[in-house]
Amino acid sequence: MSNNDEQKKPAAAPKKTRPAGSPTAKRPAKPAKAADQPVKKKKKKTETVLHHSPEGHIGGKQETTDLWHLSVERIREASERERRKINSSNQQFLYFLLKLFLALMILGSAIMFLTWKVLENYEKSTPNGAMSAYVHLLQANNYDKIYENSTVIFTQFNEKEPYIEYLKSIYEDVNLKKAVFSKKAYSNDTFLYYDMIVDKQKISTLELIYNEEARQWNVRTVIDARNFYIEVFGDAQVYVNGIRLNEHYISERNVSSDAYSNLFDLNQAPLVTRYHIDNLVTVPAVTTQDDTKYSVVKDALQDRFYIAEKPGGAMEEIMRTRIRDTAMTYAKYISEDTRFSDLQQYLYRRTDYYKAISSFVNRYFSTHDSYRFDNMHISDLISYGEDVGFTGTISFDYVVTIEGEKSQTYSNTYQMTFLNVSGKWLCSNLVIANQSQPETETETETEMETE
Question: What value does the mean pLDDT take over residues 289-300?
Answer without folding.
Answer: 94
